[in-house]
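User: structure tokens for this one?
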Amino acid sequence: MSSTERTYVLGGETRRRSLFGAVTPLQLTLLALYLLVWLLLLVSTQSVVVLVLGLVGGSGGWLVARRRTAEGDSWGAGLVDQAHWRFAGGRRERPDFVPGLSLPPELGEVRVLAYAPPAAPGSPMALIHHRDMRHRSWAGGHLTATFEIAGGGDGLLPIRVVNTAGYLFERLLGGLSGANVPVDQLDLCTRVLPVQPEAYRTHLACLLTADVPPRLRRSMRQLAGYAAGNTEEYRSFATVRMPLDQLAGRLTEAGDLDALCAETFAVLGDVVGRVGRAGHPLRAVLGPRRLGALIRHLHDPDRDIDDLDGVDSVADGWAQTRVPGRDWARTAGSSRPWYHAVASVPRDAWPLQPVNARWMEHLVTGVHPATIRTVQVQWRLVPKVSAREKARLALTYDTADRHGERRRGQVSTGVSEASMSSSRRVLDDLLTPVVGGAHPAVRVHVSAPAPQELAAARLRVTAAAESGGVTRLRWHTYRHHQALLTTLPLARGITA
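Assistant:
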């Protein structure tokens, strides 16, 4: 592998483009209906008042649709979210979910399967069957499974090592996007937790031998006190999403649940092997109780990830009363309440400049002081034909925008040129056999025991994202309670 830094272009695959710019199909439909009704009224009444009111109403609606908040999000969508939050009793801090017989409504309908392979009957793995909500059928949908992996490590690494890791991950995504592997999404998340100062001092003390000079021992104890506040521990997990129809197509006999679970186990084993060869060896496949404990920990960080007390199934992960807020979602922890906030990287905020394979290390290891957070990256895998067509259309729209700027005599900000370069790079990369099509998404889940601490943590995470080249983060204001679902190990929240 070359010692020259290997770079990647993210903007070409992720920047939102359409024939009418940032106007969505819904906005175009509403505009067409408004114009149709207005013209019918104008023709039938032939009134100047109707003409003026139609022009004023259309202009006002257009301004509302185009207006952006200080963070760059849609002002109209934010207004709708605020109205829905107030109507649901958010200002009175009324719980929107209470543990009981049902799961959170945004989760939809799911079934939990526990399959133990014949070679290990005492170690079942958890399979989550997500119902096909479009056709309202259990015969469709998809299965998800989660396993813990070893992280890639942090710190300064040689360029050759970073290049090798990036190349191996390219091969991983390219292999999983092939037609012979029934996988359409891969999620990788890293849970970051501050290390308790006393536990860190004990850890360093155990590393010292009995014959260490007292002066060195005192120095190491003092160093442990300084470093404990910024020392973190990391746990990484991978979630695989497998379409049920593709799994069923590999079976010789339809309708056999045991055969379907066995085929899912074989596919998961193939994926685990590919992930291990990419530099992330397997630690454990999560069973129903361990997956439930992980979900419970994400809602209540006071409970350890490996604490199985009180967890009998995946459903026990949602054991906390939840209250939605404007800037947070509060869950009732075992010993104290916890406040959560979720952010995602918008499609127009990805770095336009080339980045290396470790461009996200600022979010994972560069937040100081230590902050409880989860950094999750999702890849929706698509066939190469679809990825090429998307990149081709993106390059066409970018070229048209640049020609329009030149014709109008506008000075370019450099975004159009960088976006055009990204699209060309993606088209060239897709000609390589090992490269597959992927639509990525990045989400960050931050937790703190108080609203003031959560606000400070959000500022630190935003600063770390900007250091990595991300122009802005979209914090899901008024909808953090629903956005929590996208950060759980369930492969939800991204569409192709």
